[in-house]
């Protein structure tokens, strides 16, 4: 007769049971907030990452206002009132470069791979990158506006205009940051991203009427500037902040509507593409699992052993099968 041992059943109290996992929406918000905090905590350690939203806007403001401003005459408006709204629009566009460089750095340094190995939602990683970059860009725009006010910029808008301008700026930052995040995912090299970003955004910002009116340009640059997406940003901010109207193309005649349309289009294209690019590659197998070393299942092909063979020596790494 075989005796059967009966083990006592442990009773688990209700307070010892692990809490249920929160639903996907709560997890997404919580993980996004944690990742945003992680990005913002890096700023004191690497303060030079804010140079593109602090030093660069001040440099552009002083350079064009005091060096080139004396040679530029805009009929019927002071140059400060013409330049500063353009610089705010340019700052929104330059968010592409900052977001792209930060994203490319995370990909090249392996940070994204580490996040993929954690039980976090994929969308929270991308959303945290976007929100963190938008916060940094808001800092840059506040610096531009503060320097402009100190140097004589006087916007002509009431409370409603101020709210409208803030909403337009947030929409522009959101859209162009998504574009930068997608570009950083595709390029995945911070130096290349910075070079390509400046090569594309800087000429478009000059052609957008940021510093001089588009109507005074030659035929070819004027045709490009009239349909430049950045022209809608610059003209939209200038119309809301100063009441200055631009002319030459449909988007210059209706800059606020055109700006909203460009931002919605960029967001609608970049968000699904960025989510698709962030999808981790499917795992690959090096070969059939065929033998054991102790209790660990290993792969013959990863050790350079042939698929066939038997005997004790077939399970020893580096020895040919017997």
What keyword list fits this structure?
2 domains, mainly alpha, 2 strands, two-stranded antiparallel sheet, elongated, 322 residues, disordered C terminus
Number of strands: 2
Alpha plus pi helix count: 11
Q: What is the rounded Rg?
A: 28 Å
Give the percentage of residues in beta strands: under 5%
- Helical proportion? 55-70%
SSE topology sketch:
Elements: H1 24-45, H2 51-68, H3 79-108, H4 111-116, H5 122-150, H6 159-187, H7 190-207, H8 219-226, H9 229-242, H10 250-253, H11 255-277, E1 289-293, E2 296-299
Antiparallel strand pairs: 1-2
Helix pairs in contact: 1-5, 2-3, 2-5, 3-5, 3-6, 3-7, 3-9, 5-6, 6-9, 6-11, 9-11
Task: Summarize, please.
The protein is mostly helical and 322 residues long.
Describe this structure in words.
This protein is mainly alpha-helical. Helix content is 62%, strand content 3%. Strands 1-2 form a two-stranded antiparallel sheet. The C terminus is likely disordered.
